[in-house]
C-alpha cells in the first residue's frame, strides 16, 4: 500500500507538471537539457515533465523606455535630449523568438544596448548639424534613427515602433542668446511694420490732400465759370433793360438822361446799403455829377450806335 501511494503521488505530480499555462501577450521558450526545443503559445500547453523546461517567458506586448542624453553639434554647442522609445518583439516566428531569448543574458543588458545604440545614432546625426538647425530637424532626426536602428534591432528580434523627442534644450548661455536673437528679430520686424504703416499713412494723406486740392481747383474753376456767366447774363439783362427804357422814354418825348440819373442815384443807394462800413469816396459836386452824366450818356450813345 505505501508503494502504491507513492506511485499515485508521483503520477499526480507528473500529470501536474505536464501542463503549462502561458499568459496572453507572452510566449514561452522550451529547452531540453539547456538546448532550445520549441515555443509555447498563449493558453494551456503540454510539455514532457522533468525533460522539457520553461527557459523564459517573453512578452510580445509593446514596451517603452525614457531616455535622457547629451549631444554636441558641429559648432560645439551642447544639446540635451529627452526622448521616449517604443519597441516590441518583431513577431512570434521561431527565428525572432530565438533571437529575443538568446541574444542577451537578460533584459537589463538588452536595454543597455538599445539605449546606447539610440543615443549613438542621434549623436552622430547632431554632430553634422549646427545648433541653430537642431530644433527644426526633429522629424529628420527620428527618421534617420529609425532607418539605422531597425536593421540592428531585427537581428535582436525587436522592431522600433516609435521614437519621440519630447524635449530639446541647450546650455543656459545659448538659450539666452537665442532669446536675444528672437527679441531683436521681433523688434526689427516691428520697426519695419511701423515704417510701412507710416509710409502708407503718409502716402494716403498725400493722396487725400492732392485729391482735395484737385477737387477744390475744379470747384473754383466751375464757380469762376458760373460767376462769369452770371456777370455776362447780368450785363445782358441790364443792356436789354436800358434799351427798353430808352425806347419808352423816346416814345414819351422824355430825355433819356433821366434814366442815367436814376441809375446813378440807385448805385449810390446800393453803396450805402451794402457797403458794410467800407469807405467809398464819391465826387458829390455839381461838376462831378455833370462829368459822370456825360460819361454815362456817351456810353449810352455808343451802345445805340452799335445797334
Largest sheet: 3 strands, antiparallel
- CATH architecture designation of the largest domain: 2-Layer Sandwich
H-E string? HEEEEEEEHHHHEHHH
Gross geometry = rod-shaped
- The largest sheet has its strands arranged as 3-2-5
How many strands in all?
Answer: 8
DSSP helical segment count = 8
Distance between the termini: 172 Å
Explain how this protein is built.
This protein has 307 residues and is α+β, with helices and mostly antiparallel strands. The protein has 4 domains: 15-59, no CATH class; 63-170, Tetrahydropterin Synthase, Chain A; 175-252; 255-307. 61% of the residues lie in helices and 21% in strands. α3 packs antiparallel against α5 (138-156). The protein is rod-shaped and about 180 Å long.
Write the layout of secondary structure elements.
Layout: H1 2-17, E1 19-22, E2 26-32, E3 35-40, E4 43-46, E5 52-59, E6 63-72, E7 78-89, H2 94-102, H3 107-126, H4 131-134, H5 138-156, E8 158-170, H6 172-251, H7 257-274, H8 286-306
Antiparallel strand pairs: 1-4, 2-3, 2-5, 6-7, 7-8
Helix pairs in contact: 3-5
Question: Briefly, what is this?
Answer:
The protein has 307 residues and is an alpha+beta fold.
Any key phrases for this structure?
alpha+beta, 8 helices, 8 strands, three-stranded antiparallel beta sheet, about 300 residues, Tetrahydropterin Synthase, Chain A, 4 domains
Amino acid at each position: 500500500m505505501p508503494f502504491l501511494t507513492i506511485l499515485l503521488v508521483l503520477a499526480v505530480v507528473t500529470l501536474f507538471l505536464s501542463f503549462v499555462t502561458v499568459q496572453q501577450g507572452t510566449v514561452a521558450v522550451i529547452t531540453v537539457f539547456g538546448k532550445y526545443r520549441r515555443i509555447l503559445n498563449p493558453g494551456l500547453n503540454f510539455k514532457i515533465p522533468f525533460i522539457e523546461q520553461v527557459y523564459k517567458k517573453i512578452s510580445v506586448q509593446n514596451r517603452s523606455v525614457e531616455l535622457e542624453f547629451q549631444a554636441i553639434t558641429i559648432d560645439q554647442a551642447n544639446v540635451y535630449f529627452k526622448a521616449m522609445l517604443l519597441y516590441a518583439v518583431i513577431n512570434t516566428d521561431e527565428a525572432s523568438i530565438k533571437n529575443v531569448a538568446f541574444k542577451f543574458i537578460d533584459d537589463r543588458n538588452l536595454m543597455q544596448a538599445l539605449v546606447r545604440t539610440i543615443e549613438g545614432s542621434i549623436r552622430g546625426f547632431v554632430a553634422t548639424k549646427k545648433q541653430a538647425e537642431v530644433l527644426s530637424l526633429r522629424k529628420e532626426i527620428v527618421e534617420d534613427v529609425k532607418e539605422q536602428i531597425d536593421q540592428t534591432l531585427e537581428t535582436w528580434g525587436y522592431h522600433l515602433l516609435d521614437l519621440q523627442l519630447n524635449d530639446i534644450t541647450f546650455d543656459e548661455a545659448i538659450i539666452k542668446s537665442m532669446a536675444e536673437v528672437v527679441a531683436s528679430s521681433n523688434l526689427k520686424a516691428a520697426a519695419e511694420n511701423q515704417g510701412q504703416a507710416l509710409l502708407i499713412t503718409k502716402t494716403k494723406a498725400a493722396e487725400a490732400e492732392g485729391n482735395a486740392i484737385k477737387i477744390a481747383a475744379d470747384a473754383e474753376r466751375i464757380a469762376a465759370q458760373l460767376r462769369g456767366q452770371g456777370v455776362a447774363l447780368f450785363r445782358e439783362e441790364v443792356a436789354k433793360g436800358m434799351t427798353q427804357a430808352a425806347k419808352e422814354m423816346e416814345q414819351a418825348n422824355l430825355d433819356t438822361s433821366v434814366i442815367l440819373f436814376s441809375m446813378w442815384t440807385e448805385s449810390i443807394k446800393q453803396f450805402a446799403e451794402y457797403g458794410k462800413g467800407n469807405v467809398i469816396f464819391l465826387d458829390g459836386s455839381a461838376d462831378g455829377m455833370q462829368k459822370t452824366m456825360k460819361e454815362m450818356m456817351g456810353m449810352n450813345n455808343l451802345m445805340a450806335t452799335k445797334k
